[in-house]
Design goal:
globular; 12 helices; six-stranded antiparallel beta sheet; 491 residues; alpha+beta
Length: 491
C-alpha cells in the first residue's frame, strides 16, 4: 500500500461504546470508517451500567434513546451517605433519571447503528504500529491473516485504559491508583434493598447497589480489611458481609452470574491530540467508578469529536477546528476525575475528620438542596459548558435543551433532538432564514414553537453535538453569514 492510498477517511481503534458512537457519527456523515478491535468476539463484560441524562440526550439526537431505555430500569434518584439523596427528577431534561442497563446493551445499539451507516468493523485486529506524516496515519495491525496495514487521514484511539494507540504515540498517562481490590458482581438477592439504587460507606468499606430490572443487581464493593490482588476471586460470603455492614440489612446474596476484581486508577493524558491522531474515552482519561461517569464521559468525547472530524475531512472547516476538541473536552475530563475521586475518598476515609464529614453530609441532607442539585447536574453531564469568547452571548458554549420547534411540514422535526438526527447543525430563529440556503447541506433551519418565548429575538446556531455555537439578538445578515462561515465553513 502506498503512502497516498487511503483505506478509510478515519480509523477508529476500539469497538467499545466510545469508538462505536464515533464510528456511527462519521459513517452517517458519509465518511469511510474502519473500526479495529483486538477482540475476536463481542465482549459480554459489563463494567459500566449507568447511562446518564446527557448521554441519553445524545442518543436521542441519534434516534437511539427509546430503544436503549427499553432494555433497562430508570432511577429518578440515588441515596448516598445516609439520608443524602441525589435527585435527578428535577433536572431540566427529557430524561430526568439515570438508566441502569448492562454496557452490552449500549454497545449493541451503537454497533448496529454504526454498521448500518456503513462503518466497517474488523475484529481480531490488534494495533501494533503507528506512523503518521503530513498526509495521513498508517496503522499496522496483527490479524488472523497476518500483519495488515491501514491508512487514513485521521485516527482515533478509543481503545481503553491500556490504549495501544496512546502507548505508540508516546503520550504520558500520569496519575495514581484511586482504589484497589474493588469487587464487581452481578447477583441475585434474597431480599430487595430499601432503595433500589443506593450507596453507603462505613468502617467496613463501601458498597454500591443497582438493579438491572430483571431480578439481578450490580454490586460494587470495597472491603477495607481485605485488600488482595486483582487475580483473587470474589467470595460471595465476603460480599454479603460487606453489604450487611454498609447497608445495615442482610440482603441475602443467593448467587452470582459474573464476578471480577479490579483496581481503579485516576489518570489523564495531558493532550488528547497528537498530530492526526486523537484519544477518546478511557484512552484519554480514567477515574474511580463513583457516580458511574466513565462510559458517559467517553461517549460525550465521541460526540464532540465526530462532527468536527467530518467537517474537516469533507473540506468544510480548517484543521484548526480539531484543536477545540482538546480545549473543550480536557477540562471536562479533569473535572470528572476530581469529582469522582473526591466521592471515593470520602467513602474510603476512616480517620475521624472524614468520618465526621460523611456523617454530617448524611445528617444535613435536608439542607443541601443547592449542593445536591449541582451534584446531580454534574453527575448527569448536563451541567458542563464549553469555553466561550469574552463578550459572547450567554448561551454560547452551553448545552441547548430539547427545544420545541414549529413544524413546517407534516412529519417534520418537532424537537431539537429530532432535528439533530440529520447530523447537521440547527439554526433556530423566528426570522426568515434564506441567508442559510448556501449551507443547506450542513444546517437545518427551524423556528421555535413559541414565537414569543425566550428566543423571540434571538438567532441560535446549535452544533451537531447539541451545544450552542453562536447566538445573537437581532443579528444582521452579515453577522449571520460570518457565524455560519466560522462554524460550518465557507459555503
Amino acid at each position: 500500500m502506498s503512502e497516498t492510498e487511503f483505506t478509510a477517511d478515519v480509523l477508529v481503534v476500539g469497538a467499545g461504546p466510545t469508538g462505536l458512537l464515533l464510528a456511527g457519527d462519521l459513517a452517517a456523515a458519509g465518511l469511510r470508517v474502519t473500526v479495529l478491535d483486538k477482540r475476536a468476539e463481542e465482549s459480554n463484560l459489563t463494567r459500566a451500567f449507568a447511562v446518564h441524562a446527557r448521554t441519553l440526550e445524545l442518543l436521542d439526537a441519534r434516534g437511539l434513546a427509546d430503544e436503549l431505555i427499553a432494555t433497562g430500569q430508570t432511577m429518578p434518584s440515588m441515596r448516598v451517605f445516609g439520608r443524602l439523596r441525589i435527585d435527578f427528577a428535577h433536572l431540566p431534561t427529557r430524561f430526568p433519571f439515570v438508566l441502569v442497563t448492562p454496557q452490552s446493551n449500549t454497545e449493541r445499539v451503537l454497533r448496529e447503528r454504526a454498521v448500518k451507516a456503513g462503518a466497517e468493523l474488523r475484529r481480531g485486529a490488534e494495533v501494533t504500529g503507528l506512523r503518521q506524516d503530513a498526509g495521513g496515519v498508517t496503522l499496522t495491525a496483527r490479524t488472523a491473516d497476518g500483519e495488515r496495514s491501514f491508512r487514513a487521514r485521521y485516527a482515533v484511539g478509543a481503545d481503553g485504559v491500556h490504549s495501544s494507540v496512546r502507548d505508540l504515540l508516546g503520550v504520558p498517562f500520569p496519575g495514581e491508583a484511586a482504589v484497589r481490590s474493588v469487587m464487581l458482581a452481578d447477583v441475585r438477592l434474597e431480599h430487595e434493598p430499601e432503595e433500589p439504587l443506593t450507596a453507603g460507606a462505613g468502617e467496613a468499606g463501601f458498597a454500591f447497589l443497582a438493579p438491572f430490572g430483571d431480578g439481578w443487581y450490580r454490586v460494587i464493593g470495597w472491603s477495607r480489611e481485605h485488600q488482595v490482588p486483582d487475580s483473587d476471586p470474589v467470595v460471595l460470603g465476603e460480599l454479603a458481609d460487606l453489604l450487611r455492614e454498609v447497608t445495615g440489612r442482610d440482603l441475602g446474596v443467593l448467587e452470582a452470574r459474573w464476578t471480577s476484581r479490579f483496581h481503579s486508577d485516576e489518570r489523564q493524558a495531558p493532550s488528547y491530540r497528537s498530530g492526526r491522531v486523537f484519544l477518546a474515552g478511557d484512552a484519554a482519561h480514567c477515574h474511580s467508578p463513583a457516580g458511574g461517569q466513565g462510559m458517559n464521559t467517553g461517549l460525550q468525547d465521541a460526540a464532540n469529536l465526530g462532527w468536527k472530524l467530518a467537517s474537516v475531512v469533507r473540506g468544510w472547516s480548517p484543521d484548526a477546528l480539531l484543536d477545540t476538541y482538546q480545549t473543550e473536552r480536557h477540562p471536562v475530563g479533569r473535572a470528572v476525575l476530581r469529582s469522582s475521586g473526591a466521592l471515593v475518598r470520602l467513602a474510603q476515609g476512616r480517620h475521624a475528620p472524614t468520618r465526621a464529614l460523611r456523617s454530617a453530609i448524611g445528617a444535613a441532607a435536608g439542607h443541601l438542596g443547592p449542593l445536591a442539585e449541582l451534584g446531580a447536574k454534574q453527575v448527569s453531564g448536563i451541567g458542563y459548558a464549553y469555553p466561550a469568547e469574552k463578550g459572547a452571548h450567554p448561551l454560547v458554549g452551553r448545552r441547548v435543551p430539547d427545544l420545541r420547534l414549529a413544524v413546517d411540514v407534516p412529519g417534520g422535526p418537532a424537537r431539537l433532538h429530532e432535528a439533530l438526527r440529520s447530523g447537521r447543525a440547527v439554526l433556530v430563529s423566528n426570522d426568515e432564514l434564506s441567508v442559510a440556503d448556501s449551507w443547506a447541506e450542513r444546517v437545518v433551519t427551524a423556528a421555535p414553537a413559541d414565537p414569543h418565548g425566550k428566543l423571540r429575538d434571538t438567532v441560535l446556531l446549535v452544533r451537531p453535538d447539541g451545544y450552542a455555537a453562536w447566538a445573537c439578538a437581532d443579528p444582521t445578515r452579515g453577522e449571520l453569514r460570518a457565524a455560519l462561515s466560522r462554524w460550518l465553513g465557507r459555503p
